Amino acid sequence: MATGHDLDRRGADAILTRLDAMGLARMIAESEAMTLAAHGPIVTYSRKVFIPLTRLCRDVCHYCTFATTPRQAGPAYLSRDEVLAIARAGEAAGCREALFTLGDRPEDRYAAAREALAASGHASTLAYLRDMAQAVLDETGLLPHLNPGLMDADDYAALRPVSASMGIMLESASDRLCEPGGPHFGSPDKRPAARIATIEAAGRAGVPFTTGLLIGIGETRAERIEALVAIRDLHARHGHIQEVIVQNFRAKPDTRMAGHAEPSLDEHLWTIAAARLVLGPAMTIQAPPNLHDRAELTALLRAGVNDWGGVSPVTPDHVNPEAPWPHLEVLAEATAEAGRTLLQRLAIGPAHARAVDRWADPALATRIRRLVDGRGLPKTDDWAAGEGGAVPAIGLDAEPKATAGIAAILARAGSGATLDEAEIVALFRAEGGDLAAIARTADELRRQVNGDRVSYAVNRNINYTNICLYKCGFCAFSKGSTKAERGPAYRLDLDEVGRRAAEAAERGATEVCLQGGIHPSYDGDTYLAIVAAVRAAAPSIHIHAFSPLEVTHGAQTLGLPLEDYLARLKAAGLSTLPGTAAEILDPEVRAILCPDKLTADEWIEVMRTAHGVGLRSTATIMFGHVDGYEHWARHLLRVRALQTETGGFTEFVPLPFVHMEAPLWRKGKARSGPSYREAVLMHAVARIVLHPVIANIQTSWVKMGPDGARAILDAGANDLGGVLMDESITRSAGGQNGQCFDRAQMIALAASAGRPAYQRTTLYQPVDPRPAPFLEPLA
Asked: So what's the pLDDT on residue 668?
């Protein structure tokens, strides 16, 4: 039973028969293999506070100590101030989720609830819940998760704008448990059909949803399978189930089921494994860690658990008050003992956070998108590309002990094999020992190819215009007209371009890098004239110029084939092409990021043609905006394939997205750049994936900052790029790492990593450095 999909056509009885034939040991082994294949070693949890909005409920479940009476409860509902006090305490303790727990429609049973609602001006508990969730959103950084009981389409429409996710436990698919003598007798909201209808309605409403089973309350194994099949089919129709909880019954004093036997550990493990086998590898399966002894947690993970649910450093488990939450340090240790890594998640699960436009109200979508990384998990540090400052610790100094799957991938890559998309995605998901092992492998491959020397170039950027016809969502440099939105628009004349090139050569530069916006008056002759102006002013300087977008624009405006136009540029003095305008070479991303720009195929064709006429180029990736790890993998594979074909790329340059002034981010449509972990991994994984066909991996001091660039010298990079006199594109996006990083700084940065530095040409030939200083950007 390698996947859960072959169960889809079988009834619950047939599934149970097959599971019984497998036996518990085999069920656990196959479940664990499925879990690791889909989720790797990562186990998630949500750091949250529990807000018991009301403990009144119209149901009388025979095992419940949460629901109580007005006499025992005191005020029927928490006040707004009480709700916010809990939420603020949670925020101060690093929580990200506010879980609202409450009874089901208590106003239908209790006059005290009706009176309290009337006094607050609310027609129902759900209306009051909406206002309290809105208050938490307005006053704190927490994301609400709501568990209000049965709901219909109108309820979801009202509550979806104020919650990142919602949930209701199916508990059981057994009507028998609702009959006299059963645990759900007298609880109309526990009828399986009603709860299934609520879960179905959530799917239609596009609500990320948590559900699950409560085992050991008198149901049979067959009835558990029926419940799992029902959840599976609901998810197949709507895709909205973000996690399934398999919770074990705990007998509580002062309830009718105080003497009822609790399920054994083996029974819990059987149900967890059954859930994995029925629901498939991709589903997130949760078991509450406070309902078992610490020694039993490893067994739960091996049975198929990949999430511990909500753990609060502030509030108790109001549903199981007798079972305190384990300290997060203890939970992390127990998880590590099983060979797994504990990571925080949001109230919305990672898969749904990655598709947040579908699964969240627009206002919440922006908030969620700005919180997460490419996995849909929260960024847990304050680092951002372009901002400078100290880099966070991400475990690069941990023991580089790779899990079996990552070790096999690294071994294949080290032999020069081409990895596939799934293998590369697995590398980008790495944490803990896997992350350290990837960085170590990248560093070893760098040493094999480049030795220990760190290279840099002395160059000057000349951005001849910032006026552009295109509206790329990431670009804060370009201006649509002379009436600029952010700073003045400009266009340098040819004399000024030549003057800057001559000045750069006089001050020791070996290269000028020429790029600009696509000005509405520019045509192919404009770019030829720019090259001629530079060549006349600085005859010996290397002209590194024109992105594939500019080349395409030039060729099209003159009605020339790419090959002919590139040959004309080369004859005029063009030396190499920068690999910009690549962004992400995937149509899904480009449709959002730069829909009017050249396509990924067109970028590849410009580079293939340039290499064919003898013009070498760099290759870049600009990442951390609307992309995912699968897109990064596809980009790397396209670059590798072209390099294998032409050999024309001199280097690969990862460019983390600088978000602060980017139009797409300001509109709430992009993430806040990559995490530091992702930025490090991009360099390391690029070294590994592109080995041995691309020898040079560059780290951008402009994007990474000096400290970040220094760290990446130990994670696969061998080049620090250019000094970039007059860097302006990153600065326009909000970058704060300066416009120039001079020769002395380059040498000192390499030395801080214990490595010697040398000046190179654009084509990576050593240069005897000239003594002329360049300490400031040139005017």
From this structure: 92
Helix (H, G, I), strand (E, B) or coil at 706: helix
- Residue 35, number of CB atoms within 10 A of its CB: 26
Backbone angles phi, psi at 167, to 5 degrees: -170, 160
Cα–Cα dist 41/39, whole Å: 6
- Which tokens belong to 503? 């000045």
Q: Is the pLDDT of residue 738 over 80?
A: no
Q: What whole-number distance in Å separates Cα of residue 579 and Cα of residue 608?
A: 12
Closest CA to 396 of 717, 677, 655: 677
Q: Could you give the CA distance from residue 213 to residue 169 in angstroms, rounded to a whole number? A: 6
pLDDT digits (tens, 9 = 90+) for 618-653: 999 999 999 999 999 999 999 999 999 999 999 999
With a cut of 90, say whether residue 737 has pLDDT above it. Answer: no
Q: Answer whether residue 66 shows pLDDT above 80.
A: no
In one letter, which amino acid is 195?
A: R
Q: Is the pLDDT of residue 326 over 80?
A: no
Weakest mean pLDDT among 5-19, 118-132, 150-164, 685-699: 5-19
CB 562 within 8 A of CB 611: no
Give Cα 81 to chain centroid, integer Å.
34
CA–CA separation, 492 and 519 (whole Å): 11
Other beta carbons within 10 Å of 204:
12
SS3 98: strand
User: Of 345, 388, 384, 426, nearest to 675 (Cα)?
Assistant: 384
Extract the tokens encoding 247.
């919770």
CB atoms within 10 A of CB 191: 15
**Bridge partners of residue 23, in order along the sequence:** none
Distance CA 158, CA 127 (A): 8
Phi, psi of 451 (to 5 degrees): 70, -155
The pTM (predicted TM-score) of the whole model is 0.91
Distance CA 353, CA 361 (A): 12
How many C-beta atoms surround the C-beta of residue 9 within 10 A? Answer: 7
**What does the DSSP 8-state code read for residue 378?**
B
Instruction: End-to-end CA distance of the chain: give it in Å, rounded.
Output: 69
* Whether the predicted pLDDT of 7 surpasses 60: no
Which whole number is the average pLDDT over 569-584?
Answer: 96
DSSP tag of 698: B
pLDDT bracket for residue 10 (50, 70, 90): low
Residue 482, helix vs strand vs coil: coil
Cβ distance 668 to 369 under 8 Å? yes
